[in-house]
Amino acid sequence: MKLRIGIVGCGTVGQGFLECLDRKADDLRARYGFEAKITAIADPVRGNLIAPQGLDIRKTIKVLAQGGKMHAVDTRAAKYDGVPTVDIIETAGADLIAELTPTDLKTGEPATSHIVRALMTGKHVVTTNKGPLALHYRELSELARKRKLAFRFEGAVMSGTPVFNMAEAGLAGVSIKEIRGILNGTTNYILGRMEEEGLDFAEALSQARKLGYAETDPSADVEGRDALAKIVILANVLLDAGLKPAAINPAGIGSITRAMIASAREDGFRYKLIAYVRREGARITAGVGPRKLSLSDPLARIAGARNALTFDLDLLGSITLEGPGAGRIETGYAVLQDVLAIHRDLK
Ligand code: HSE
User: What is the dihedral of CA 89, 160, 248, 194, to 10 degrees?
Assistant: First the structure.
């Protein structure tokens, strides 16, 4: 079965998704009977294109990777210059919209409007955008439910590491008492490079940006707002908490110096940016801040841009999920994971 997909925002994650589709095309056809037809791309920098016949995925990857625009993929792109993204979404001839624009944690826009337009015009939605989820999860999931459409967001919290897909099947029937862990790849990478190679903060951040880990505005990573958005999303989706990010004050890693890291290491400790949500009776609390962990703590060993979460569960005690927390291919794969789940449910 061919699934018609429109991609909104074709930067790091969108291109990673296209690459996953291209690399796995034969395998996905053989294993699941899955084929993707990309019928639209909308991107304010790279240009717009609606291609009902499906665009050439390999050529698109090549052109965009070289900094080219959609005009260079297909000359018909010129026709869509200046067309508002919501109109491309509406007329995309797609079964599913992948909303992959950069996150804005203050307003959730323009992603929220994109998602609403897609759902209102009968399209399933996959997103990796944290803004709409942290701010409007209940309304958006309710809209999708009413319209009998899928709304999936595996890549929003732990990139390709399957936290929601794992919880959907694997935590059915248990109650979560606490979730605690490392949810920001950029800061984990920076702290690691500062400790292992003595890099200064700016140098380590610049490398994290080059590797595609950091947000378009990396202050959200460094100041803990990215991790806060993710723990709020986890709390609201998995604990039905109804938390608002604005009500919680996160602390970031800005105050952690190389000297502090070196001295902690001498004492057998390591700094990590820890996010948590905890249920005590009817009360749910959440927070984000740097913590000095003993090297024997499993979270102290999470390296690079990897993430980890320990779930404390009533029937199971604790389980820990660890995996990539950021990256072009890794987050592109999260989109593929959701697309395949929708394809499976439609079959
Ligand atoms: N900037 C985010 C991080 C990307 O570093 O974890 C993945 O959400």
Answer: -130
Please indicate whether residue 230 is annotated as part of the active site.
yes
Please tell me the predicted confidence (pLDDT) of residue 215: 86
Q: Select which of 130, 230, 272, 347 is catalytic.
A: 230
**Does 78 score more than 90 pLDDT?**
yes
Residues of CATH 3.40.50.720 domain(s) within the chain? 2-160+328-346
Distance CA(158)–CA(148), nearest Å, equals: 26
CB of 326 sitting under 6 A from ligand 1 = yes
CA distance linking residue 138 with residue 151, whole number of Å:
11
Ligand 1 near 103 CB (within 6 A):
no
Q: How far apart are CA 188 and CA 340, in angstroms?
A: 30
CA 54 to ligand 1 centroid distance, Å: 30
The topology under which CATH files domain 2-160+328-346 is Rossmann fold (3.40.50)
Q: What pLDDT shows up at residue 217?
A: 87
Q: Which atom of ligand 1 is nearest to the CA of 218?
A: 1
Asked whether 226 lines ligand 1 (CB < 6 A), one says yes
pLDDT mean across residues, the chain: 96
Q: List the residue whose alpha carbon is closest to atom 7 of ligand 1.
A: 326
Q: Alpha helix locations (H) across 178-257?
A: 185-197, 201-210, 219-222, 225-238
Task: Please compute Rg for the chain using Cα positions.
Answer: 20
pTM equals: 0.95
pLDDT average, residue stretch 195-202: 93
Per cent of the chain over pLDDT 70 is: 100
188 lines ligand 1 (CB under 6 A): no
Bridge partners of 289, per DSSP, are 274
pLDDT in tens, 41-65: 999 999 999 999 999 999 999 999 9
Which amino acid, residue 91? Answer: T
What is the number of alpha carbons within 13 Å of residue 253 lying toward its C-beta? 35
CA distance 162 to 164: 6
Q: In terms of CATH architecture, what is 171-324?
A: 2-Layer Sandwich (3.30)
